[in-house]
Write the structure tokens for this entry.
Amino acid sequence: MSASSLRVVVPGSTSNLGPGFDCLGLAVDRHLVLEWLPAGRGGVRVRGERPPEGFGDRLAGGLTDLGLPEDGTLEVDSTIPVGRGLGSSAALAVGLHLLKARISGFDASLEGTLQSVAELEGHPDNAAPALLGGLVAATRHDGRVSAIPLPVSERIGWAWAAPGVPAETQAMRAALPGRVERAAAVRNAARLAHLIPALAAGDGDTIGWAMGDELHVPYRLPLIPGAEAARAAALEAGAWACTISGAGSGLIAASPRDRTALVVRAMEDAFRRDDPSPEAARAFELRPDLQGARWETDVSRPPDREGGPPIRRG
């Protein structure tokens, strides 16, 4: 990598963790790598995961639409599935903001980046873990984004699986009710209060019930092909809990670490049985990314290992 090129690595994230709707997210070890070359053929070159047809490719407009100089080249390499609830949009927004800030000299602080990306995304629970790494509680307060890093136990294994079709964002939003019962809101708040310390302690018994949700999961789960069967399969294989990852279409399960591989296979098998596109169903184990967004200084090092100096954390 030349001295004048820039390479930023941004993790994906799972959000809406159980009762943590729009406020709790976890950075995971699937990554977006953006490398800016001030010379070369110009334009955008994409490798790895690509948006499904019709899903909306933000890279298709080229450098001008992305706010980058036209006399450079942006190389994009991603292992974050698109439209499957792993924060691909937030990762791209974070990476582009940091690149543009470094190139143009505007605010690249944690606060400035988080505020900008949260405004673009409409919620901060993917942007915050993508920037900070690990488990993060994030919300808006007085017009600003507040983000609090939280501990997460290494005892927890994370299994992810998704059907062959992505979630349709508008359909997932439209599925949510305009109002919820007060009792349901109180139960969700109580679960969240118990879930956060349970994730820190690796307390599977508490995670099992505290990851339940009444604000979005009951309304969105029926829209995901095979999701009911995949969630049941995860629990039967030994997971403590299984919920929607982000807005879907992926599901995320928390289990004992030694059961994670079994849970992954059970969820994938269930999706393949019930999915209208079984050959495209996917599943894999995830681990928390505890670093968050970082500049990569050694291109020979894979992005899921320790990178260069971290983004300033406030």
